[in-house]
């Protein structure tokens, strides 16, 4: 097969391109074999180079990595300025980022827990301007110029918040995963009752005025959005009742001594479980 016959069917531009390539590598030219593989290889490399240029952009491809400082690219970036536990914070973040992820990933406040991430368990509860919110369903951008309080912000000057102390006294936690959300919710609950905000079980909503007295039923209803898979609900209710009334509530648990530990029949009975 002659070169003339081999080029039949090619356009003039294709013939010129083939001639140019073959002239650079004529020593390897043959009808089949290595020269053909080299030809395909060169075309592949040329096509790959064009594709890479389009994907990465000419500027980035030609830039020198050693002289260009790395900068984080944030999609849909917004600047957020708010207070967290009394300290002013200013952040640049994605406008779609939740308050929970902002607290945990940007501010390293990991006390608020991610449970269901669907607003159903209450483990992520924090307070925004004194109102409890589910931080997994709250966009951080919506908290601009507001004040956020997390479990880390309740203790002051090394002293636990009264609700934290009550939870310790009444053993209102077992695994502890839901506890930060439970305590934040309980603290906000007291303010709601003090302000006279009614719940689903509040009697005489139209005639009642002033602060709401929290019965056990009221506490259970108002805390129903916070789930405890360990089942420490009776102890949590006792802790909230104690802080709400300011009167001591007998704890229903106690430490065992060595004799009781060796004989389980002597252990105190817990009627609430």
TrEMBL record:
Superkingdom of origin: Bacteria
Pfam entry (one): Fer2
SUPFAM superfamilies the record matches: 2Fe-2S ferredoxin-like (SSF54292), CO dehydrogenase ISP C-domain like (SSF47741)
Residues of the 2Fe-2S ferredoxin-type domain: 78-154
Keyword list, A-Z: 2Fe-2S, Iron, Iron-sulfur, Metal-binding, Oxidoreductase
GO molecular function, one term: oxidoreductase activity, acting on the aldehyde or oxo group of donors
Claim: Iron is one of the keywords in the record: yes
PANTHER family according to UniProt: OXIDOREDUCTASE, IRON-SULPHUR BINDING SUBUNIT-RELATED-RELATED
Name assigned to this protein: 2Fe-2S iron-sulfur cluster binding domain-containing protein
């Amino acid at each position: 097969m002659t070169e003339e016959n081999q080029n039949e069917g090619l356009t003039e531009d294709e013939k010129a391109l083939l001639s140019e390539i073959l002239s650079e590598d004529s020593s390897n030219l043959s009808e089949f074999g290595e020269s053909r593989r080299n030809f395909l290889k060169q075309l592949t490399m040329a096509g790959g180079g064009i594709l890479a240029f389009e994907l990465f952009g000419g500027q980035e491809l030609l830039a020198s990595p050693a002289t260009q400082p790395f900068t984080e690219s944030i999609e849909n970036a917004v600047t957020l300025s708010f207070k967290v536990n009394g300290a002013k914070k200013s952040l640049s973040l994605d406008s779609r980022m939740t308050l929970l992820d902002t607290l945990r990933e940007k501010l390293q406040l990991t006390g608020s827990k991610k449970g269901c991430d669907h607003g159903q368990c209450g483990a992520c509860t924090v307070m925004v301007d004194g109102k409890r919110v589910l931080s997994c369903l709250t966009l951080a951008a919506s908290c601009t110029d507001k004040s956020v309080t997390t479990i880390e912000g309740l203790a002051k000057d090394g002293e636990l918040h009264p609700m934290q102390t009550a939870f310790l006294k009444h053993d209102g936690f077992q695994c502890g995963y839901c506890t930060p959300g439970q305590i934040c919710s309980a603290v906000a609950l007291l303010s709601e009752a003090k302000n006279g905000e009614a719940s689903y079980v509040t009697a005489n909503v139209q005639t009642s005025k002033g602060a709401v007295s929290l019965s056990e039923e009221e506490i259970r209803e108002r805390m129903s959005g916070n789930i405890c898979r360990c089942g420490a609900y009776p102890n949590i209710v006792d802790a909230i009742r104690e802080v709400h009334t300011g009167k001591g509530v007998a704890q229903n648990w106690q430490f065992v001594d060595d004799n009781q530990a060796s004989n389980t029949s002597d252990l105190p009975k817990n009627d609430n479980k």
